[in-house]
Amino acid sequence: MRCPVCNFYDTKVVDSRLLPEGLSIRRRRECEKCQFRFSTLEDIELLDLTVVKHDGTREAYDRGKIETGLHKALEKRPYTAENFQLLLHAIERDIQKRKKREITTQDIGEIVMNRLKGFDKIAYIRFASVYRSFEDVETFQKELGKLLSGKSARRAASKRHADTRAAKRVKKLL
Ligand SMILES: [Zn+2]
Fold this sequence. Notes:
alpha+beta; 3 domains; three-stranded antiparallel beta sheet; three-stranded mixed beta sheet; binds zinc ion
């Protein structure tokens, strides 16, 4: 593999690590010319997976579509390329764990949201608001409130005005 900095043709592996589920390997590499270190992630491709869309049509699974959605949700948010790869990886492992040859776009969306929630809350809200198109303002505000403060989530019903303030704060961030 070429060095991403100086483009030298050879890099050596300095460390290999099998990730917890045993389904992928992360390699630390070092450029033999400029000593730049980087890591690569080798994992299983999701082949033979069919995605069933809302209208019932089917298409082959395409990692690129999830990547595009994630990049959109994470626009201007702080994250590293490596963490992004790990996020994508975790999402695909979740899909794989279902052990089914078909998955609905809705199920993929839920898996992505689930992982995004722990990765970046703002990105999660962006993704969820597009994806789930919250039925009404109240549901959306509840969701925001839950995210912004564990405490206010527990008191959500009686303290709706707190959630509304939280929603306004987040709107500014978005
Ligand atoms: Zn180099």
